[in-house]
Write a structure and sequence with these properties.
Distance between the termini of chain A: 47 Å
Largest interface: A-B, 35 and 38 residues
Mean pLDDT of chain B: 67
Structural class of chain B: mainly alpha
Oligomer: heterodimer
Number of helices of chain A: 2
Strand order of the largest sheet of chain B: 1-2
Number of strands of chain A: 12
Radius of gyration of chain A: 19 Å
Low-confidence stretches of chain A: 43-50
Order of helices and strands of chain B: HHEHHEHHHHHHHHHHHHHHHHHHHHHHH
Order of helices and strands of chain A: HEEEEEEEEEHEEE
Low-confidence stretches of chain B: 1-7, 32-46, 87-97, 337-346, 511-519, 541-555, 573-578, 662-667
Shape of chain B: globular
Radius of gyration of chain B: 27 Å
Number of strands of chain B: 2
Mean pLDDT of chain A: 79
Helix content of chain B: over 70%
Number of helices of chain B: 27
Structural class of chain A: alpha+beta
Distance between the termini of chain B: 74 Å
Chain lengths: 182, 667
């Protein structure tokens, strides 16, 4: 009997793991503020692995020297906080970068996104950020179709950003039209 | 001129050996069929307790000991014996085999259905909302796992329970990846594999389930290899998992095969992480940790000599230690050859070089002394110890004298190894196993000199067949554990070579007119191997060894093994002609696996069975990704085949239950 309880406990653990993974992004998507951002073409090398598309954004690579990081650039694996501002066309773009979550309010036209430094930027001062919104999974065989548009710069994405600065990818748009696979 | 001479030479070898092989094969087929047709007789022996071959042998030994010690009388012994029957006695195979066949079928079925469901769901996702998808996954997972746990309650459905939980564990892992897809999570993906393993291992421990343990082990291995190879960094998190989860689990589940694989994964971890520790290319100096790992296992083997519980693992540790130490030595020689001896001369002024050499020399000397002193006490163990020590000695001798890089070493080492092999065939067992493991390594680096993949592969095929034949002799001598290991090694080598040829691109590269343009000494080595194979067959067929159970014709199941090298050699001969090698190899390999499956049931060899199943899975998985079908079609095929397997196993189980109930009344 005791053994069976333990076995059921393992099942609960398995469900908890799946739930936790789902919630990690699901929370952001449910509670976060939705903003629109431009998707930019990336280096065409290994763009497409399996059935997902790699996405990069205007603010994925940042010249930190322009944002006050003159002498010391944080090492790979550190988090920085990027403040985005709404542009005239409704797309959000980079405004400033800071090592801490900005205390001062960003207002309705500003939002803070947390990014992980993915490369060694000590000398070049150009940091590549990971926000956890770089992969868009698609049904089998549909990836090439999206990639074609990404090269034409007609791709944009709706991302949700929660109050901790965590981002989650929710929708993808081609020339303003949402991508659906019905 | 040389080519045609060698061609003739091959034909002579084939001409001499072919009739023996074909006749042996034909007799095998006839005997197998006749045995299969008369299998109905065996079933009526129900009412006794069936033991598998291993337990049967244990009981056999114990009964003899009890009679000798006067615990029971001869009469009681006969009575006890009458209560049981097992493989190798009374022909208890049919029922034993049937029980495990059900297990195999239901496991296969669950594997296929699980994979099919995951593919199906992952394709048809678009119409459901994200949280709807998560609910479907969680509901499916809970449903399957609860069904599995319920099935465990009754003894008769317990094996289904294990398999269904295995299916649940596949769905759990699939769920992790699917949820990542649904929310477009591009997290550090090895963590997903780790979480998967973490969810599977408790089931393995709680249920003492080999199936689930091997699954978890595979996942943890994948996790650490992804971390260290894909993300190129030292992966220290694996160490606590290894020592505090995997090794204790092995002891708890009591699986020797699991122990061997677990430590091999540990070894793979050491190998992959060596580079990051030393910060340099793989060099002789990075081999130190490898040797130490082997030595640590050797001391663990010594540690496991006494006590009934720990003795169970002795052979496994012992096998591993010998294999790994020799692998490290082989890697060393390989490295030195790569630099054509220049390295040895250059390193002579290096202090580390002298330190390592001196350490190895002291080690071999101490080992030698220890083993000689304890020879009487530990019998076979000391014999093996002497061998390891002397191998070290030879190795160090060459290291010191700088001959390690010279051609002399190529000829000396195999000669030495081969002599000991022959000696051990005579003695039956012992170090043979370790040497068998060393031999292919040597072959690979020696043949690498000839720069011909065909040469290496054909040599390996013949060597695999030799290993298999050796296992027959060891079996006849009652060294079943060593026989099993040799057999597995032989089967694996042959499988690996044919498998590579089933891949179209690979087959096209390897098989070509260059095949016969090897130098003379290749053919010398090849003939030596082929002739020793012939000798082994001859001994097996016409002059059975051992007093009790000799080698029978039908035990020469190496039939498919022998035919394959022959075919290989012949198409090597016609290398210039276009032949669909990939297709031929696929058919061959399929036949080979089916033949092995039949062999494993007839001889009650669980390890052969496990091997053939694994081989089948690998072959099917490769072909699955080869052929250009859509996900939906693939999943439908997977699920249908899986359901057929599961239904078949349920029917078999029912039939077995009804036989059990009916037969006592008949008697």
């Amino acid at each position: 009997m005791k053994n069976r309880i333990l076995l059921y406990a393992v099942v609960v653990f398995q469900v908890a793991v799946i739930g936790a993974i789902a919630l990690s992004k699901g929370y952001t998507r449910l509670t976060g503020r939705k903003i629109m951002v431009k998707v930019v073409p990336v280096d065409p090398r290994s763009l497409f692995r399996g059935d997902y598309v790699i996405l990069k954004y205007d603010f994925s690579t940042v010249d930190l020297a322009k944002h006050g990081f003159k002498d010391e650039v944080p090492p790979r694996g550190e988090y920085l906080f990027l403040t985005l501002k709404r542009g005239p066309e409704g797309f959000w773009a980079l405004e400033s970068v800071s090592p801490e979550f900005p205390d001062t309010g960003t207002g309705d036209d500003g939002i803070v996104v947390r990014g992980l430094i993915a490369n060694e930027a000590r000398f070049s001062k150009r940091a590549d950020f990971i926000f956890g919104i770089e992969s868009y999974f698609v049904p089998e065989g549909e990836g090439k179709y999206i990639e074609k548009y990404r090269e034409k710069k007609e791709l944009s994405a709706e991302i949700a950003v929660d109050r901790y600065g965590r981002a989650a990818l929710s929708k993808l748009f081609i020339a303003g039209k949402e991508v659906r696979f019905d | 001129m040389e080519v045609s001479f060698i061609g003739m030479y091959v034909y002579i070898v084939i001409a001499i050996l072919s009739p023996i092989i074909w006749i042996a094969g034909l007799i095998f087929i006839v005997r197998t069929l006749s045995r299969y047709l008369s299998a109905a007789r065996v079933r009526s022996e129900s009412g006794k307790v069936y033991l598998d071959a291993q337990r049967g042998r244990w009981l056999d030994r114990q009964l003899k000991e009890w009679v000798t010690a006067g615990v029971i009388t001869g009469e009681t012994e006969a009575k006890i014996r009458d209560r049981y029957f097992w493989a190798g006695r009374h022909g208890g195979r049919a029922v034993v085999a049937k029980t495990s066949l059900i297990k195999v079928l239901v496991t296969f079925g669950c594997l296929l259905v699980g994979t099919g469901i995951i593919f199906l769901i992952s394709h048809n996702w678009a119409n459901i909302s994200p949280w709807g998808k998560v609910s479907v996954i969680v509901a499916g997972l809970v449903l399957v796992q609860c069904l599995g746990i319920r099935l465990l309650r009754k003894e008769r459905s317990a094996k289904f329970g294990h398999a269904v939980i295995f299916l649940g564990n596949i769905i759990y892992g699939g769920g992790i990846w699917l949820v990542a897809q649904i929310f477009h999570i591009n997290a550090h993906f090895p963590t997903g594999v780790f979480l998967w393993g973490l969810g599977v291992i408790p089931f393995a421990i709680l249920l003492r389930s080999n199936l689930n343990y091997f699954f978890a082990l595979f996942l943890f291995a994948l996790w650490t290899l992804l971390e260290s190879i894909y993300f190129t960094k030292t992966h220290l998190y694996f160490v606590p998992v290894f020592f505090f989860v995997l090794v204790p689990a092995v002891y708890h589940i009591r699986t020797r095969t699991g122990l061997v694989f677990t430590y091999l994964i540990g070894y793979a971890w050491v190998l992959t992480n060596l580079y990051y520790w030393t910060g340099e290319e793989f060099s002789p100096f990075t081999l130190g940790p490898m040797l130490l790992y082997g030595l640590a296992l050797y001391s663990l083997a010594v540690f496991h000599r006494h006590g009934d519980r720990s003795r169970y693992y002795k052979a496994a540790y012992y096998f591993l230690a010998v294999f790994l130490i020799l692998a490290a030595c082989a890697a060393y020689t390989l490295l030195v050859f790569a630099d054509t001896g220049a390295l040895v001369l250059a390193e002579r002024t290096n202090l580390a070089y002298w330190a390592i050499s001196a350490f190895l020399a002291c080690l071999s000397l101490c080992g030698l002394l220890y083993c000689i002193r304890r020879r009487k006490q530990y019998g076979e163990l000391s014999g093996d110890g002497v061998l390891i020590a002397s191998l070290f000695g030879v190795f160090v001798l060459f290291l010191f004298t700088g001959y390690l890089g010279s051609t002399a070493f190529i000829y000396f080492l195999p000669l030495f190894v081969f002599c000991v092999c022959l000696h051990n065939v005579h003695r039956g067992g012992g170090i043979l196993l370790g040497l068998s493991a060393y031999f292919p390594l040597w072959l690979i680096f020696t043949l690498a000199r000839y720069n011909s993949a065909t040469a290496i592969f054909s040599m390996l095929l013949v060597y695999g067949a030799c290993e298999y034949a050796m296992s027959l002799i060891l079996d006849a001598k009652g060294k079943h554990g060593y026989a099993a290991a040799n057999r597995l090694l032989g089967l694996f080598i042959v499988f690996a070579v044919i498998y590579l040829h089933t891949i179209k691109d690979f087959a096209g590269v390897v098989v070509g007119p260059q095949a016969l343009a090897c130098s003379g000494d290749f053919w010398l080595l090849y003939t030596v191997l082929y002739c020793s194979l012939g000798v082994l067959i001859w001994r097996g067929v016409f002059k059975p060894l051992g007093a009790g159970r000799g080698i029978h014709m039908r035990e020469l199941m190496a039939f498919p093994l022998f035919v394959v090298p022959l075919l290989y050699v012949s198409y090597m001969r016609y290398g210039g002609i276009e032949v669909p090698i990939a297709i031929i190899s696929n058919v061959l390999l399929f036949g080979y696996i089916i033949a092995l499956l039949i062999i494993s049931y007839q001889h009650d060899q669980p390890e052969t069975r496990a091997f053939s199943i694994a081989a089948f899975v690998v072959l099917v998985a490769t072909r699955y990704f080869d052929i250009g079908l859509t996900l939906v079609t693939r999943s439908v095929i997977f699920i249908s085949v899986g359901v057929v397997f599961i239904i078949g196993s349920v029917l078999l189980e029912k039939r077995k239950q009804s036989l059990k109930i009916r037969e006592p009344h008949e008697e």
